[in-house]
Queue: 2 jobs
Job 1
Amino acid sequence: MAVTLEYERINISRGGRPVLVDIDLVLPAGGLVALTGASGAGKTTLLRITNRLLAPDSGRLLIDGADAANEPGPQLRRRIGYAAQGVGLFPHWTVGDNIAAVPWLNGMERQGRDRLVLEMLDLVELPQSFASRMPAALSGGQASRVGLARALAARPGLLLLDEPFAALDPETRNELADRIEALHKAQGLTTLLVTHDLADALTRATRILVLDGGRLVADATPAALVADPHPAVQALIASPLDQARRLVRLTE
Ligand SMILES: Nc1ncnc2c1ncn2[C@@H]1O[C@H](COP(=O)(O)OP(=O)(O)OP(=O)(O)O)[C@@H](O)[C@H]1O
Ligand SMILES: [Mg+2]
């Protein structure tokens, strides 16, 4: 079941500096929401607050209407699919054990886990034989898919993806983005997708959030965002737009 998220005046400082300032936001169930903004804007911090790896200094996060602070973090995280920035697979575990990490924590027995791993590999379109591989033997794109499979293995209602396309070539990232979009729909998820790439965000998401220096400076549909005059938004849009124009000119 897709999850509803409500952020109420969330503030957090790190190392004495404010990193998120007065974040007020409601994400209804079922949205595919892109979270973008320059490096250091606070994107990862917002994801980490969402799955309680970090507690805000003030403000509340409601998950399906319940205050997230009232549930132990580890328990909460087992219901949330999280693919961390840089994938973060456990290097000494096989791909299969990585994928089944949360179900294992939840006490799922061996046979069930083996079946689940094969199903998740199918979902992310990797060969089932990858279950016995070690993470070091994966390409960047394959590792991203394993990270996605691991995030989906607990059958979450909420999927948090932190730059799943980083360091992938354009074709691979497009394939992975297609896969994420399809899985988002098929699995009935609320998905919060952090991406540096505004072109991805604009073409995939139903809604775009832009963070700038810890403040939410835009919250709009893709079409409305393009018309947004905020300087931080314009700065993000300028380069993909320019690139697209030059490409179109070449084909004319
Ligand atoms: N443990 C920490 N101690 C102090 N400052 C931190 C810590 N973690 C993050 N920060 C700071 O918080 C700010 C936001 O970091 P965050 O990782 O959320 O940015 P981001 O938007 O995800 O950036 P990127 O696009 O580079 O991943 C940055 O200025 C960062 O230096
Ligand atoms: Mg980050």
Job 2
Amino acid sequence: MPMQLYAHPQSPFCRSVSMTLSLVGKEHEYKYLDLFAGEQNSPEFLKINPQHNVPTLVEDDFVLTESRAIAVYVAQKFGTKGQLFPEDLKEQAAVNEKLYFDANVLWKAFAEVFGPLAFGGQKEINQDKVKALKEKLALFNTYFEKTGFVAGTKDMTVADICCLATYTTIQLTEKAFVNMEDYPQAQKWVETCKKKIPEYEESNQKGLDIFKKFFHARTGL
Ligand SMILES: N[C@@H](CCC(=O)N[C@@H](CS)C(=O)NCC(=O)O)C(=O)O
């Protein structure tokens, strides 16, 4: 049976896994879960993932959740030597560092601005949270000084891919909260990564377009 990825394209976490799978060329079955219809809470899916979230990767009897863990697993298992996840221990640590940064700092800062508006009924933009997001983005912008890739590696890694899914999601809210032109190194890095991901349109852009409509519908911004 082919590997299965339970996912929804709007989710940045699913998009990063899709980009990783496409880059290593791993065939898989994309199992679309309509999160807005609550399909993640069906008894069948809860048996697979009681945490009812996506992405969820199923490979025979092995089930893996958490997008960044999935991306690392996919790169290590199916990538060519060192592709997307370096072999050197210190480089691996640097990649892991930026994966944690993506989850715990960058995405978190964005979610604190966007989440209450989209899901919590909040009407006003919280400017303190916007300030915090701008600080994180300014820090992020410095990460490309060494090599042009987020973890200072010679080539693109899963840290770039996961951060790319987050950053391009922030980009689509442009002008509502932040001005992306304030982060020129990051903007340049996005274009570099896009060129390196042959299936970028299908694996990231398509979901971003859905997210954009959702964002406008929910926030009016
Ligand atoms: N930290 C997780 C976050 C996963 C997550 O929050 N997924 C959302 C979609 S963006 C989800 O499945 N929500 C449905 C639910 O929790 O019921 C990851 O990186 O995979």
